[in-house]
Amino acid sequence: MAETPYLWRAHRPGARHRLICFPHAGGGAGTFAEWSDLLPAEIELAAVQLPGRQNRIAEDPMTEAGPLVEAVVAELLPVMDGSVAFFGHSCGAMLAFEVCRSLQAAGAPVPRHLFLSSQPSPEAFQGRPKLHELSHEDFRAEMVNLGGIDEEIAEDVEILDALMPAVRADFAIWERHRVAPGPRLDIPLSALAGRTDVRTPLDTLDGWRAYTSAPFDIRLYPGGHFYFLDTSTEVLASVGRTLLAS
């Protein structure tokens, strides 16, 4: 259910932990809807909902990282009580990372663990081709090739085109973004990826190690850029073990 415009939350009374998910470019909180039933009873699921998608489709997507991070931080502060972890996928991983940095810089509660999924380290990401600069047709084709779009939608050009502005806006934000110098995070960080993800090959992950003073690990799964859609049970078993051990 929608907690606020920016947060969907599957309330689980008595849960000792909360997992807050940040969806991929153009993706909505509904991406993680099925995860609630797959998580252990001790973990409550929440997901960030940004303007320009699903129930917020009529709103213009945000175009700058700073205001976006500021808005998300303000909305998440009320649910940062207790044991919280962040899971961000692709562009959502960059948002989750910058939200963590902002919370830490403000002396606010921070997550106990940050899971960064299918996102190269900032240095490796800067060297990637800038997809948001592609023509409309080429950009649309790239998004379909990456996967994560329902087959019915991928075959309906009109619906697909309606989704592209939010997707392109997210890519533009994070492909232009440069991580500012600052202290390392004080929380454990895990980099996750599909073994055949051409957007996030293994050699682009280890650079995340430099962004935390706490333990760091890499977790690989079968599949490509949207590996987690087909390996949800395996991914959540790993995430759950990490949270329940904290």
Give an account of the 3D structure:
With 246 residues, this protein is α/β, with parallel strands linked by helices. 36% of the residues lie in helices and 17% in strands. The chain has helices at residues 35-38, 65-76, 91-105, 122-126, 136-146, 151-154, 157-176, 227-230, 232-244, and strands at residues 2-4, 7-10, 17-22, 43-48, 83-89, 113-117, 189-194, 216-221. The chain is globular. The mean pLDDT is 90.
Keywords, separated by commas or semicolons:
246 residues, alpha/beta, Rossmann fold, eight-stranded mixed β-sheet
Shape: globular
- The CATH topology is Rossmann fold
Gross CATH architecture: 3-Layer(aba) Sandwich
CATH class: Alpha Beta
What is the structure about, briefly put?
This protein has 246 residues and is of the alpha/beta class. It is 36% helix and 17% strand. An eight-stranded mixed β-sheet has the order 1-2-4-3-5-6-7-8.
Task: Write the topology of this structure.
Layout: E1 2-4, E2 7-10, E3 17-22, H1 35-38, E4 43-48, H2 65-76, E5 83-89, H3 91-105, E6 113-117, H4 122-126, H5 136-146, H6 151-154, H7 157-176, E7 189-194, E8 216-221, H8 227-230, H9 232-244
Parallel strand pairs: 3-4, 3-5, 5-6, 6-7, 7-8
Antiparallel strand pairs: 1-2, 2-4
Helix pairs in contact: 2-3
